[in-house]
């Protein structure tokens, strides 16, 4: 009875190819970059000569998450193929690093590519509700605090910094404090002890 070694040998060769690491190349690209944007000269950075990317079938072979990039034909450049949304890919995690694997043939080699998707200020801050009413005792003491729920921003770092403004009021001021644990507290603070006829003070938030 004959034994067929073909499929087994192909599996062994493929496993050996995956074990050969050609080092790691790192690139970065801003989210929302247009399709066709060149992320990096991949073939050149891997040491391939002109004509080799096609001859050796340079290509992406594995992506842990949808990366929205591809290798461009003869040039061997890594280019954006579809919309990159950092928040969709990584949420609030920073840095947002996608790990790709690139294969070349003759001889078989695997290269590891890390692509960092950097944040841009593309999200507006949002309050949990558009309008909120407060019942405040008319004779509340000066310095009395009335907690407010602040806005949230899907961006990260400096793009997620928020500032708040309060409409002009002689009775209230807005107190916004950043805490050591990177959380923030927001409150209306009573500034007067006399009778007043404005039961609430509108305020707003802006992303910087």
Automatic annotation (TrEMBL):
Keyword Protein biosynthesis listed: no
Signal peptide annotation: 1-23
Compartments where found: Membrane
Gene Ontology annotations of biological process type: cell adhesion
Cadherin domain boundaries: 28-127
Cellular component per GO, a single term: membrane
SUPFAM superfamilies, alphabetized: Cadherin-like
Annotated membrane topology: Single-pass membrane protein
Pfam families noted in UniProt: Cadherin_2
Keywords: Calcium, Cell adhesion, Glycoprotein, Membrane, Repeat, Signal, Transmembrane, Transmembrane helix
Keyword Repeat: yes
Matches recorded under PROSITE patterns: CADHERIN_1, CADHERIN_2
Gene Ontology molecular functions: calcium ion binding
Gene3D superfamilies assigned: Cadherins (2.60.40.60)
Coiled-coil residue windows: none
Annotated segments matching region Disordered: 176-208
Top-level taxon of the source organism: Eukaryota
Biased composition (Polar residues): 182-193
Protein known as: Protocadherin alpha-2-like
Organism: Grus japonensis (Japanese crane)
């Amino acid at each position: 009875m004959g034994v067929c070694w073909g499929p087994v040998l192909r599996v062994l060769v493929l496993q050996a190819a995956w074990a050969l690491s050609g080092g790691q190349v790192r690139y970065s690209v801003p989210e929302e970059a247009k399709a066709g944007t060149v992320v990096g000269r991949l073939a050149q950075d891997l040491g391939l000569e002109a004509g080799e990317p096609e001859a050796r079938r340079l290509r992406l072979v594995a992506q842990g998450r949808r990366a929205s990039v591809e290798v461009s034909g003869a040039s061997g450049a890594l280019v954006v193929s579809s919309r990159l949304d950092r928040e969709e890919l990584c949420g609030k995690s920073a840095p947002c690093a996608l790990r790709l694997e690139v294969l070349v043939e003759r001889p078989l080699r695997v290269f590891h590519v890390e692509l960092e998707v950097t944040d841009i200020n593309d999200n507006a801050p949002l309050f949990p509700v558009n309008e909120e009413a407060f019942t405040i005792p008319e004779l509340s003491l000066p310095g009395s605090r009335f907690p407010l729920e602040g806005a949230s921003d899907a961006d990260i770092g400096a793009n997620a910094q928020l500032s708040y403004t309060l409409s002009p009021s002689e009775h209230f001021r807005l107190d916004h404090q950043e805490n050591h644990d990177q959380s923030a507290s927001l409150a209306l603070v009573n500034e007067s002890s006399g009778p007043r006829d404005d039961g609430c003070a509108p305020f707003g938030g802006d992303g910087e």
